[in-house]
Design a protein that fits this description.
Protein name: mRNA (guanine-N(7))-methyltransferase
EC number: 2.1.1.56
Number of helices: 9
Structural class: alpha/beta
Catalytic activity: a 5'-end (5'-triphosphoguanosine)-ribonucleoside in mRNA + S-adenosyl-L-methionine = a 5'-end (N(7)-methyl 5'-triphosphoguanosine)-ribonucleoside in mRNA + S-adenosyl-L-homocysteine
Oligomer: single chain
Keywords: Methyltransferase, mRNA capping, mRNA processing, Nucleus, RNA-binding, S-adenosyl-L-methionine, Transferase
Low-confidence stretches: 1-6, 22-85
CATH topology of one domain: Rossmann fold
CATH architecture of one domain: 3-Layer(aba) Sandwich
CATH superfamily of one domain: Vaccinia Virus protein VP39
Strand content: 5-15%
Number of strands: 5
Order of helices and strands: HHHHHEHEHEEHEH
Strand order of the largest sheet: 3-2-1-4-5
CATH class of one domain: Alpha Beta
GO molecular function, one term: RNA binding
Helix content: 55-70%
Mean pLDDT: 74
Largest sheet: 5 strands, parallel
C-alpha cells in the first residue's frame, strides 16, 4: 500500500510539473509575440488596444457624432447659411411670392369699374357701407389730432397705402389735406384712382374752384410689401403727417420680410407726432365663423366613408 501511494505521489508530482512547464511556455510565447507586435508598431500606436467588442462602440459613437454634426450643419436656418439647397429654397420662396403678387395684381386689375347704381346692387353693399363708415370715423378722428399741433392753414401731407381705385378720395377732400400720395400694386386700379382725382379737380361747379384748391396728388404703382415707397416719392425727403392703410395690411403677413417692409413704408416718412392708421380683418372672428363650417364638411366626409 505504501508503495502504491508513493507511486501515486510521484505521478501527481510529474503532472503538476508538466502543467507548470506548459503554462510557463505559453506565457513566454504570448509575451514574446506581444513584444514583437509592440516593436513593430509606431510610438503613436502604442496605446492600450481594446478587444473588437470594446472597439465597436467607440466607432459607432464616433460615426453618430459625425452624423449629428452633419445634420446640425444642414439644419441651420436658411437665412444664416449659403448652401446650395438653401439658395434653392430661397429661390422657390421668391418665385412663390412673385406668383402671389401677380395673382393679387391681376385680380384687382380685372375688376370692372361700376357706377354707383351697380355698386348699390352688390350683395356686400351693407358691408361696404359699414367699412366706409369705419374709415371715415378713423380718418376724421386722427386728422383732428394731427391738426391740434399745427397752426391754422398749415399743410397736411398724407399717404394712402393700397389705395385701390380711390374710394377714400372724397374723405381726404373733406379732411382738407394739402398733398396726397396714392400707392397700389394694381396699375389699372391706380389709373382709375387717378381718373377719379382728375374728375374731382375738373368738375364744373365745384365749390373748391377759385376758393380752396383741391389737394395735389401723386400716384405710385408698387407693391407696398416689397418696395421702399419713399424712393419713389416726387420729393424723397418729404415728411408726412398721416399714413393710412385700409383693409389691406393683412396682405403683408405672407412673410416676415414683407410685413417689415410694409411697416417701414408706413413709418419711415412720418413726422414726429404723425399717425399711422390701418384696419385689418379680425382673425378670431374669422376662425369663429369658419370652424363650424369645417366641422359640418368633415362630418359629411366621414359619413360618406
Amino acid at each position: 500500500m505504501s508503495a502504491l501511494r508513493a507511486e501515486d505521489k510521484a505521478e501527481n508530482e510529474e503532472e503538476r510539473q508538466h502543467a507548470s512547464e506548459t503554462d510557463t511556455s505559453c506565457t513566454t510565447t504570448a509575451k514574446s509575440e506581444t513584444t514583437k507586435d509592440t516593436d513593430a508598431e509606431s510610438p503613436q500606436s502604442r496605446k492600450c488596444k481594446l478587444s473588437p467588442d470594446r472597439e465597436r462602440p467607440s466607432k459607432v459613437a464616433k460615426r453618430d457624432i459625425e452624423e449629428d454634426a452633419s445634420s446640425a450643419s444642414t439644419s441651420v436656418p436658411s437665412d444664416l447659411t449659403t448652401s446650395g439647397s438653401n439658395e434653392k429654397d430661397k429661390d422657390a420662396d421668391v418665385n412663390r411670392t412673385l406668383d402671389n403678387t401677380a395673382l393679387v395684381a391681376d385680380h384687382y386689375n380685372a375688376l370692372e369699374e361700376k357706377g354707383l347704381s351697380q355698386r348699390n346692387q352688390s350683395r356686400i353693399v351693407y358691408m361696404r357701407n359699414f367699412n366706409n363708415w369705419i374709415k371715415s370715423m378713423l380718418i376724421n378722428e386722427y386728422v383732428v389730432k394731427v391738426r391740434q399741433g399745427k397752426s391754422f392753414g398749415a399743410s397736411l401731407r398724407v399717404m394712402d397705402m393700397c389705395c385701390g381705385k380711390g374710394g377714400d378720395l372724397l374723405k381726404w377732400k373733406k379732411a382738407n389735406i394739402s398733398h396726397l400720395i396714392c400707392a397700389d400694386i394694381a396699375q389699372v386700379s391706380l389709373e382709375q384712382c387717378q381718373q377719379r382725382y382728375n374728375d374731382m379737380v375738373n368738375k364744373k361747379g365745384s365749390k373748391d374752384r377759385g376758393f380752396a384748391p383741391i389737394f395735389s396728388a401723386e400716384f405710385i404703382t408698387a407693391d407696398c410689401t416689397k418696395v421702399r415707397l419713399r424712393e419713389k416719392f416726387m420729393d424723397p425727403s418729404m415728411q408726412l403727417d398721416f399714413v393710412s392703410c385700409q383693409f389691406s395690411f393683412h396682405y403683408s403677413f405672407e412673410s416676415l420680410p414683407q410685413a417689415e417692409c410694409m411697416l417701414r413704408n408706413a413709418g419711415e416718412s412720418l413726422k414726429p407726432g404723425g399717425y399711422f392708421i390701418g384696419t385689418i380683418p379680425d382673425a378670431y372672428d374669422l376662425v369663429y365663423v369658419f370652424l363650424p363650417l369645417l366641422y359640418i364638411h368633415l362630418k359629411k366626409d366621414l359619413s360618406k366613408g
